[in-house]
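User: Could you write out the 3D structure of this protein bound to pyridoxal-5'-phosphate? I've included everything you need below.
Assistant: Certainly. Input first, then the structure.
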Amino acid sequence: MMDLSRRNLLKGAGLLAGALPFQSTLTASSAQSADSSAAFEFENWERLRDEFDLDYSWRNFAGFLLTSHPRVVEQDIQRHRAGLNNNPANYLFKGWGYSEETREKAGEFFGVNAGQVALTDSTTMGLATLYNGISIKPGQEVLSTEHEHYSSQTSLRYRAEREGFKLNTIRLYEEPKDVSTAEVLKRIKQHITNKTRVLALTWVHSGSSVKLPIPAIGELVAELNVGRNENDRILYCVDGVHGFGVENLNFDEMGCDFFVAGTHKWMFGPRGTGIICSRKLDLAFIDPTIPPFNLNNDPAFGPMMTPGGFHTFEHRWALRKAFEFHLALGKDNVESRIHFLNTYLKNRLQEIRGVELVTPISTELSSGFTFFRVTKHSPEAVTTIMHERKIIVSPADRDAGPVVRMAPGVLNSTEEIDEAVAVLQAIA
Ligand SMILES: Cc1ncc(COP(=O)(O)O)c(C=O)c1O
């Protein structure tokens, strides 16, 4: 736990605010901030829907984009907001401990030490912080793929243009349905050279729902790193946003060096929240970009790599509740429910002539989205038709070409999927 002693708080007050009269007020801030919320207990999937203010007259298959958050998270945001509105300066310094609690909960959720977790405002902020600061020396190269999201591609491109290193971008499979672990490993191995410093991959591809075999790639990277010295070792980085809060995997099982995710999608966290997680507890392979507001001068990765400046603190501090919420749901329970719903949808789509399933059937190689095409209609037209019937799906056109995206998550049911399938049956 961070040392919230009076001495440290005063040091922090001096660092951040100079002349503000903290000394006289620091001890008086706790009265309105006690966490009185009842812990959430999971009963069943139907009942879970009551924990959210979602408008269920819509069939919402777009939780992957930006999520509604559950009551426990909402209440915690309100609690912190009230504290900040009541006495911003006092509550701010009290809140430094809340950031630490958020990092501890993230660590519990992901099986790591709080010091390995930095807090960000989004996946994009995490990726930019990572790819801007990761150690790449002159002559070294980056290997990445066509399956990355714009935010990874652009962060890497900015750095490559600035420093002139080679950014090698490959495909790991031609069509999503052809993906196999052996092929992915073969292609990565083929393209890693002794100059490759960074391997930048995405866990679940947001153009197809292909899920990469992240642990198997971790083993390959570990083998290839044998004999390389620290300055040349391949640093394996994962954009994990669409697996985090879906797949039941801990950080250590992945074998990566850095992991980035937003927590305002599948995790049900407050908007404007995310994490970066590091294998190392120190800054062995990375430098900060944005000055951290690290009041205790803690040299660990988490406090050093958490961008400083003032944030929407009530959101960041309430993120802790989203991790607790997921732990109460059960990570294995969430994973099996989401895979069950997606497999159900895939099977139903395959019954329809005129609909082409794009996402692999295998739950080993796909995750919480299901992508498809309707031969007679563009993805935009399908989205509009569905929208008119109060069903939210979305079009995408990335590495797998034009597709319709549907993401059945824990707030959806098979009945809702049947409704969407009935519309597709009628128009296909
Ligand atoms: C794979 C992937 N990475 C990064 C992002 C950006 O996420 P954020 O909005 O949290 O910055 C997205 C957006 O959905 C995404 O699909």
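The two ends are 57 Å apart (CA to CA).
User: Perfect, thank you.
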